[in-house]
Amino acid sequence: MPRPITASISISALRHNLATVRRHLDHAAALTGATPASIWAVIKANAYGHGIERAVSGFSAAQGLAMLDLDEAVRCREAGWGGPVLLLEGFFQPADLDIVDRYHLTCTVHSSEQLAMLAAARLSRRVDVMVKLNSGMNRLGFAPEDYAQAHARAGQLQRQGILGSVGRMTHFACADGAPGVADQLETFARATEGLSDGPVSVCNSAATLRYPETAHAGAGGPHWVRPGICLYGASPFDDVSAASYGLRPAMSLRSEIIAVQQVPAGQAIGYGATFRTEQLMRIGVVACGYADGYPRHAGTGTPVTVAGVPTRVVGRVSMDMLMVDLAPVPAAGVGAPVALWGEGGPSVDDVARAAGTIGYELLCAVAPRVPVLTRP
């Protein structure tokens, strides 16, 4: 019999979350009379651990898909996706342009080296690009003082028949908290002043949810947003839950109790003796550990649900097991179901918070040895 741990992915939850974001954008656009922004559903990192093919199915109503990896882009096409595919880091070497050409991929352009590679390429069709501005994130993108020249160079390649549409994009560093997006929006407006042709994209998950009006920043259009984590039912914010936006968890990590220990008062539980009992405790041993992707730093008090009853992790998470307090659920024994996060359990964000990390990391970190089930 296989070890009793599974991650299940709900296609209906993915569809629900996309529709929820769509309604949010439509409502914001209606308030200003703007045309609703199009959605690039971000499916990088194997769709945040949910699987590329599942994401293609779940986000079939999106206008486009966005990711980093060329192989994942090819998998989207092979799965039947015929819409736009945006490479968020663009291409890395001249040979990549053969794949860009063959599979009709849209590329982020963030460096002069990429523009030079495009100029030297021999392509069978025009490549659509988004010229990226570094508006303050200081990661990828042209500096504000260099942006107009870079955009003009892309326009020259467009006139030469190498490029198709030439868009503008940036990425917010603090849309999930202070200082917000105002300074970067101002930088974007100054750097792109006078540029009114081509698509525009500035919003990630946090900006899409908290500042939906910025979806229409910049003249021209069409305007696109790039939601990621919210589409999987997790929150981009520390202070606002995904459920408050009506989002549903798409991934549920589940296991079972495989042993029960009666531990007397004053005894240690787990490696390092980080937890000692103050009275007789009934402890359940769960078939899940950090080798499955559960965070090792999720210490005593991390929420978990056993047989539908909320309880807590106690002691240190080990490679293959973790221990839970069965006091709130005295009837639970070997074989009792355990919801580690997702449907019927704590949110992945609550587990991540207890472990000093973010839900993104946990969703992406589920190990290959965990069987993954697809639910409609």
TrEMBL record:
| All copies of domain Alanine racemase C-terminal, residue ranges | 250-375
Principal EC category: isomerase
Q: What GO MF terms are annotated? A: alanine racemase activity; pyridoxal phosphate binding
Keywords noted in UniProt: Isomerase, Pyridoxal phosphate
What cofactor does this one take?
A: pyridoxal 5'-phosphate
Matching SMART domains: Ala_racemase_C
Q: Which reaction does it catalyse?
A: L-alanine = D-alanine
Q: Which residues bind substrate?
A: 139, 319
Q: Modified residue N6-(pyridoxal phosphate)lysine is at which positions?
A: 44
Q: Which InterPro entries match?
A: Ala_racemase (IPR000821), Ala_racemase/Decarboxylase_C (IPR009006), Ala_racemase_C (IPR011079), Ala_racemase_N (IPR001608), Ala_racemase_pyridoxalP-BS (IPR020622), PLP-binding_barrel (IPR029066)
Task: Give the record's pathway.
Answer: Amino-acid biosynthesis; D-alanine biosynthesis; D-alanine from L-alanine: step 1/1
Gene Ontology CC annotations of this record: cytosol
For biological process, the GO terms are: D-alanine biosynthetic process
Q: Which Pfam families match?
A: Ala_racemase_C (PF00842), Ala_racemase_N (PF01168)
Q: What is its EC number?
A: 5.1.1.1
Active-site residues from the entry = 44 (proton acceptor), 271 (proton acceptor)
Annotated coiled-coil segments of the chain:
none
Instruction: Tell me the PANTHER family matching this sequence.
Output: ALANINE RACEMASE (PTHR30511), ALANINE RACEMASE, CATABOLIC-RELATED (PTHR30511:SF0)
What does this chain do?
A: Catalyzes the interconversion of L-alanine and D-alanine. May also act on other amino acids.
Q: Which family does it belong to?
A: Belongs to the alanine racemase family.
Protein name, please? Alanine racemase
Q: Which organism is it from?
A: Bordetella genomosp. 13
